[in-house]
Design brief:
alpha/beta, globular
């Protein structure tokens, strides 16, 4: 059942709690506009709508800037942009509750600030909570999640996944209008092409309101996707479309009204700059992220919000920290490195060792609008001749890389977030069947530092290894630190088949040997198929990798200090069995796999089988991701139970 919206103004007033929030949300007026009977807005309605737009935009700037101040990050621009249409939709819902499915479905989940703000305006949670935007355990994660935040009525999932879902909502509610907020970025996803075709074919009462601000994370679609036009794309599939230049109510309201009055599917494409009216941010790609505190201060000062400015410059900067930060044994005092950024730097070194002609003929690197997050930016800057700046089209981009790498001696390089690997599984199979050579970098693997929360968890990485034994090889690598990452990329770059390199969003410390030196630095040589004995033990072994490894190392060191001679294995080559390591582990009394991948699909479900197949039967256990996210950054490790204390407790139970 679709949860009912609070429609009674008296109930709204009774439930609303706007105290403790430095923007006065009580100024938001409960406007009711019937688009079916109101051909033009009255001056009073225009004034009320403009007032509501200002209240909402000021609030969004303020509490998303709290995310910047606290270090939890977030996104301002998308939610800020869409306020005019959202305010009008809210007025439509209030005037005609029986004609709408009263949910602001949004296929750009990073615009979650809209959902949180309206949850407050609907009286579902106190306004003061907004200042904890994206903080761990605050129930305000980076994307909307059903049953997580009071007042949130849907889970957005990943970018460009919502419209097909809303088609189904419309099918379940054929007598009502279903609305989906879209964007020029989300419209690049293949799901939306299919959703358009279905909506038109079935004449569904679906209305898509699209923010066409010509900004995505890594650039401007008008520049990197020549020929891409949201309105023309929709019209070409039979959709009725109105294009609005800017966001003035004199143009926006008639377009919105025509959209609602039309009996079938209809899209309104609103062409505006990103963050209109925000000095230093308007029209900039940086507007996609949480607004910088300094820019928010300038904006809020101009609006007279002195108390909000004081909060941002004071208490908002009090951030939660990992309680064990700086005290992890086995990495204490180590250098730290961002493997996801280093990946691109490693590829650049390889490319710079080739002539321009050779690398142009042998290598193609394609991005999916995430070059700054996945390390490809350095390739774009230093080797633009082999770089393709593409859009938010992971499946098509992967297949393009695979097609380039179909010929022996050529390699396609592809990168995106690990969560999106699930979207590419069919294309990975196709690439394997075509004997393609692809080097894939999936950053943001696991859950560490994942404030975007559950829908962005990269926990099903083993889905990549879905071929048959006789198929072209698919190898999965998860280097432990920056030393291993560099050696790994250098070693496997020209290998045949599909190679998957996984890195975390978080930075990782260099793993230390028992004498305190950097274990994988100096004369260490990384070898495919070989596990690393980080600590040798006689009572049993913990097997780990990725960001779980340094946490497991701390646990092992503390257990050893208590007299429990426990060992630790680093398994950076995830899907290859090291027989020597298996004998070492199998000859001990227990084996515990600790990972930040899904417990249902990760290393843990197969490592025990590998032991049994070799005649080994130590006591066996495995720790992995089992819960929806807690929000926040470091908090996820504790929430999922792969923090050091949880590992120690599990080992002690097995001894």
């Amino acid at each position: 059942l679709i949860p009912p919206r609070a429609r009674s103004s008296s109930r709204f007033a009774e439930m609303a709690n706007f105290s403790g929030f430095e923007i006065d949300l009580s100024k938001y007026q409960k406007v009711a506009i019937n688009p079916f009977t109101t051909e033009a807005l009255s001056p009073e309605q225009v004034a009320a709508v403009k007032n509501n737009i200002e209240v909402c935009r000021d609030a969004i700037v303020f509490f998303t800037a709290c995310g910047s101040a606290s270090g939890y990050g977030g996104h301002t621009g998308g939610a800020y942009d869409t306020v005019p249409e959202v305010v009008l939709l809210d007025a439509f819902f209030r005037a005609c509750p029986d004609k709408f499915v009263p949910i602001l479905f949004d296929e750009a989940g990073h615009r979650v600030a809209t959902q949180y703000l309206f949850a407050v305006l609907d009286g579902k949670m106190p306004a003061s909570e907004l200042k904890r935007y994206r903080v761990g355990h605050a129930n305000l994660p980076g994307h909307p999640e059903l049953h997580c935040t009071p007042g949130v009525k849907f889970s957005s999932g990943r970018l460009g996944h919502m419209w097909p879902f809303v088609n189904g909502v419309a099918m379940a509610n054929p007598s009502k209008i279903s609305v989906c907020l879209g964007s020029d970025g989300s419209q690049q996803e293949g799901d939306d092409y299919e959703a358009t075709i279905l909506a038109v074919a079935q004449d569904l009462p679906v209305k898509v309101i699209i923010d066409d601000n010509d900004v995505t994370i890594a650039g401007h679609p008008s520049q990197y996707l020549k020929g891409y036009d949201v309105a023309k794309k929709l019209e070409g599939q039979g959709m009725k479309v109105s294009v609005v230049a800017g966001e003035g109510l004199d143009l926006l309201y008639p377009a919105m009204r025509n959209c609602m009055v039309h009996s079938g599917p209809y899209a309104v494409v609103i062409r505006r700059k990103m963050c209109p009216g925000i000095e230093g941010v308007e029209g900039q790609c940086g507007g996609h992220d949480a607004i910088a505190v300094a820019k928010a201060v300038t904006y809020l000062t101009q609006k007279g919000h002195t108390a909000a400015v004081q909060w941002l410059e004071g208490d908002a900067k009090k951030a939660e920290k990992d309680p064990q930060a700086g005290d992890y044994l086995g990495t204490k005092g180590s250098k730290i490195g961002a493997n996801r950024a280093l990946f691109g730097e490693c590829v650049v070194k390889i490319l710079e060792g080739m002539s321009k002609e050779e690398r142009k003929s042998k290598v193609m690197v394609i991005d999916s609008d995430l070059e700054g997050s996945t390390g490809l930016k350095s390739i774009h800057q230093k080797c633009p001749d082999v770089f393709v700046q593409s859009g938010i089209m992971e499946r098509g981009n992967f297949s393009a890389a695979a097609g380039f790498g179909m010929e022996k001696g050529k390699v396609g390089v592809f990168s995106t977030f690990a969560a999106f690997l699930e979207m590419c599984v069919s294309e990975i199979t196709m690439a394997r069947l075509n004997y393609s050579n692809v080097l894939c970098h999936f950053s943001h693997s696991g859950v560490d530092d994942m404030a975007d929360n559950t829908c962005h968890f990269g926990i099903n990485n083993f889905f990549a290894d879905n071929g048959l034994d006789e198929h072209h090889p698919s190898q999965l690598y998860y280097p432990a630190d920056f030393h291993q990452l560099e050696q790994c990329v250098n070693t496997i770059f020209w290998d045949e088949g599909i190679r998957f390199v996984f890195t975390t969003r978080s930075k990782l410390p260099a793993i230390q040997a028992e004498d305190g030196s950097e274990l994988f630095g100096g004369g260490y040589k990384w070898t495919k198929g070989k596990d690393d004995v980080v600590r040798k033990g006689t009572k049993g072994y913990v097997v780990s990798f990725g960001d779980a490894l340094y946490r497991a190392l701390d646990a092992v060191e503390r257990l050893r200090a208590e007299g429990n001679d426990v060992g630790l294995i680093n398994k950076s080559h995830l899907n290859c069995v090291d027989e020597e390591a298996m004998s070492l582990i199998g000859g001990s009394s227990f084996c515990l796999v600790v990972e930040s991948l899904g417990r249902k699909t990760g290393l843990g479900i197969r490592f025990g089988t590998w032991l049994l197949e070799r005649g080994f039967s130590p006591k066996y256990g495995y720790i992995g991701v089992t819960k929806e996210g807690s929000g926040g950054l470091f908090e996820h490790a504790y929430h999922q139970g792969y923090d050091s204390k949880s590992i120690q407790a599990k080992v002690k139970a097995m001894l």
